[in-house]
Amino acid sequence: xxxxRLTNNKGLVQQLGLFTTITIVIGAMIxxxxxxxxxxxxxxxxxxxxxxxxxxxxxxxxxxxxLTNTEIAGMISETGGQYVYFEKMYGEFIxxxxxxxxxxxxxxxxxxSITYIFAEYTQFFFPLPHFSKEIENSLIIFIPFIGEVTxxxxxxxxxxxxxxxxxxxxxxxxxxxxxxxxSAFFTIMKVSAILFLVIFGFASGSGSFNNFTSDLTFxxxxxxxxxxxxxxxxxxxxxxxxxxxxxxxxxxxxxxxxNIPLGLFIGTSIVIIVYLLVxxxxxxxxxxxEMVNSKLVASDAAAKFLGVYGGAFIAAAVMISTFGTxxxxxxxxxxxxxxxxxxxxxxxxxxxxxxxxxxxxNSLVFQAVWTSFLVLSGTFDTLTDMLxxxxxxxxxxxxxxxxxxRKKMPDHPRPYKVIGYPFVPAIFVLFSIFFVAFTLYSDLxxxxxNNFAPGEPRIIKSxxxxxxxxxxxxxxxxxxxxxxxx
Length: 486
Description:
By secondary structure, the protein is mostly helical. 69% of the residues lie in helices and 2% in strands. A two-stranded antiparallel ribbon has the order 1-2.
């Protein structure tokens, strides 16, 4: 039986149901963070109680953001998500800066760094080639305010990263249903792997519930409780990041006014529960002092009850997780540039859909090219810090937009109204301001005190992120001028 597919007025097909929507939300959030951040957070906090509390606080704040975002998602169901929302809230200029930030740093930087981790973990199973130090250092590019970039360093990992980006871009080029199905498949696999770790970790009897309490204090003498909490929150937010990616493809979701809000709420809630369970099993198996000294906490925990197979199991789980997250991020991010082109504030080429596959094919290709450039730059840690800072600026603006739209569009149908209004969005906005301000303050202190890790570029990362965003301003006025002449 040949059923007619729902199509929106811009050539994209509405074919993603609620289940796929939920898996895209989960898949975008669960990446490498849960496998890497808990050990770092343990060293910053020094307490199992505080560690669990930070995951809860970060989860609740993230859920507040998701709940706030669902009101807007229910009102506006166009492809482009946050970009379209910002246009309704603040006009073309802020919307353009958001879209530019996604392209220049946030989404492409996420794709580059997450896929890079996938490539790194393949080395657990087989080595990847690399040049000698002499050849690696034969090409060093100095970029003002960033530092030195060595494109030839770790060339095997970088090459595999680019190949995976090209493969996943091709998958999503061939159709959103295919890409969405792949996202659902890998989400189910990685959640299953995590649940396996949790269930068998507790069932093994290899740990102790006494590990949930400890008198261990901070590992660094110059670290205060306040600084430790903020730094740990930053790590947790990186693990929770990606919760709003589904809004970028609202125009391709069936019944988006119902399924987008439900998908955001259910998906985010599931991730909060999963992260708490994973941290509980980490603490059950590893005392907090062992977590502090662990380079790969998930692998060390699994090795306690899986023996020699523990490392392989976790390496495979991380690869599954990052592969699925990269796929979901590639799929949704290209829709932002597509929406910008549809609004005539980006190059026309990227606003076209493929006549056969009904996907924003040109935007996907463009995104893959820029991501590959970021991969070769090798500045992944810097990009990660910048993208979190820039993301939270727009998270705060997006949440404040609920108040703006209540004023500007009071009579517009709202299938879902944010629970706890005005307190829930207000708390999220205030926290965003605090988080952004403190991050900038911390970066300035690190720069003044020359507090950088070995090999880390000596820059004020948050300000550099802002600089990349502001570089989009000339392009905005170019497209503005171009449209006036038409």
